[in-house]
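Give me C-alpha cells for this 137-residue protein.
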Amino acid sequence: MEIKSKLVRVQAPIQEVFDFLKDTRNIYELLPQDKISDWQADELSCSFKVQGGIIIPFKQVALEEPEKIHLESGDKAPFPFKLTIFLSDQGSETEGYLRFDGQVNMFLKMMIEGPLEHLFNLMAQNLRKRYEQDSSV
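Here you go.
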C-alpha cells in the first residue's frame, strides 16, 4: 500500500527544513497532538500511540542530504512500513511531501488507508504552517 501526501511549499531554504526533519524529536510538532499519546523520541527514532491504542514507532535508516529522509517501522509496529520525506529546493523555499509504503493485507488496508492519508497530509500542512509562523515573527 502506497500513500503520498499532498505536495506543500515551505517558506524556508531546503537545508533548514532538512535539518529540522532529520531530528525525529521534531516530528512531534507535525502530529495532531489531540490524537496521540505516549510520545517518546530521541534524535534517530520516535514512537507514539494513536487513538485505538496502536503504537507507531519510526526509526531513521538513511539520509540523502538535503533531499530525502528515510524512516522505517520500529520494533513494535503493527506491520512493516517505510516513510520517506522528499524535499525539493525552490530557491528560498522548499517543496516537499511524504510517501508511505506499508505491507498490509486488504482488510487492514481498508481500515487504515483513509486515516493514514489524512495523517500524512496533516503532517505536511503542519510543516508548512510551522515556517509561515516563523517568518511572521
